[in-house]
């Protein structure tokens, strides 16, 4: 349980576009979207960044996929209602960094009557931030990135692979430090001297 203060999520104001039901492979182009409901019932929904996506209710049925394409920019998703990821659904990105896809959940499933249902054998790559919610990560659910919630519960066989890249500011200049020394072999010493280099 976290004792720190968790910042309030500032949901972007975007005109409502109704409900999106995906029943076959579909791609959303870069831009700003706001759906009353987003349901992936079959196939793969591809989100192309840069994108800001606000949804009230998010539903993914079994064996469906949400593919996040961050080639040209990140994707930020905001969920204000119910969340359901059925068993066997997958959410992934084409980039190894979890930084490029973040899911911000404002829903309160503790006292607010909302539902956040993550089912077994699903996968998620990115970050989940839910300051008002209890996130129960079920058995055989795989997370590649990070989860931060008011309460987080991990079942047996849950896998959370923290992406250490999240610890660093991507806009900050790299600062390097010497962490070890090793003795050069005779061949390496000779090669340095032959190249005109100075040995310490």
Largest sheet: 14 strands, parallel
Unreliably modeled segments: none
Alpha plus pi helix count? 1
- CA-based gyration radius: 22 Å
Description:
With 200 residues, the protein is mostly beta strands. It contains one helix and 14 strands; from the N terminus they run E-E-E-E-E-E-E-E-E-E-E-E-E-E-H. Strands 1, 2, 3, 4, 5, 6, 7, 8, 9, 10, 11, 12, 13 and 14 form a 14-stranded parallel beta sheet that branches.
Helix and strand topology:
Elements: E1 19-22, E2 26-28, E3 31-40, E4 44-48, E5 51-60, E6 65-69, E7 75-79, E8 83-85, E9 90-93, E10 101-105, E11 116-118, E12 123-137, E13 142-154, E14 159-162, H1 186-194
Parallel strand pairs: 1-3, 2-4, 3-5, 4-6, 5-7, 5-8, 6-9, 7-10, 8-11, 9-12, 10-12, 12-13, 13-14
Quick tags:
200 residues, mainly beta, 14 strands, 4% helix
Would you kindly provide a brief summary of this structure?
The protein is mainly beta and 200 residues long.
